[in-house]
Amino acid sequence: QAYLSYSNIAALTHLAGKPGWDITKTLDNVKIWTNEEGAVLSFKVEMQVKVPSQVAFSLLSDFSLRQRWDRHFLTCELLQAVSEEEKIYHVTSAPMTGHQPRDFVILVSLRQPCRPQEPYTVAVRSVTLRAVPPSPEFCRSEILCAGFQIHSNSSSSCTVCYFNQVTSGVMPYLAANLTGSSKSIEDTALECIKFLE
Q: Per the database record, which ranges form the START domain (predicted)?
């Protein structure tokens, strides 16, 4: 578990530090970037939020609140609190047209900054839990690497970056979006800002 948690944080830190991010959209307080490497597409959503970084961190690290702003989360059940900083959740997401509803078993790892210039981190990856085998009503999907980095800008504002390394399991939700025919990433980002503020 210690290894999984370390690799969860490390994978997100590595993804955030990758070169070659291309900006695809800029709104008032939201920027969307993509990074393509072989068959792997990653995206980053950067949000300017008018709350202190530790407030954003405490709200974003509580996945039971996620449905309040992310309509892709249908249910989110805490399966295991491994420690203060590591929790395992079972998430179900609404079916997209022509697709079976999906479910995910995810490990959420939290880290507070060790030094002032470091971000708060909420890292997410799929794990296998014997207690929750795949069920026929859902298509079990995998999150390779996703999560948030929260950088403090001032005592009352922060930059929240959401990252996701996209697998085919998440692709139906994004395909329409990245081609510009759907606004789901932008809408979710704006809902997230509204929720945090």
A: 18-166
